[in-house]
Specification:
Layout: E1 11-14, E2 26-32, E3 36-43, E4 48-54, E5 61-63
Antiparallel strand pairs: 1-2, 1-5, 2-3, 3-4
């Protein structure tokens, strides 16, 4: 059995800047499938409201 932690429904804080995520900024995880998680990220310049990230990106976030 593989136990993994889920960010679903959690407010997250970025622990180090990467891509267009800023260190110290808060983001909200809308859902977590176990392989990917989705962050509500209203960046007007991209025209999307959710960003899909792989589980490897969890290292850049912590729960608020």
């Amino acid at each position: 059995m593989n136990i993994t932690f889920s960010f679903q429904g959690a407010t997250l804080i970025c622990t180090n800047s990467f891509a267009f995520f800023e260190k110290g900024r808060e983001y909200y995880c809308t859902h977590d499938t176990g392989e990917h998680f989705y962050i509500f990220c209203p960046h007007e310049k991209f025209g999307v409201s959710q960003i899909k990230l792989s589980n490897e990106s969890k290292q850049h976030f912590r729960r608020a």
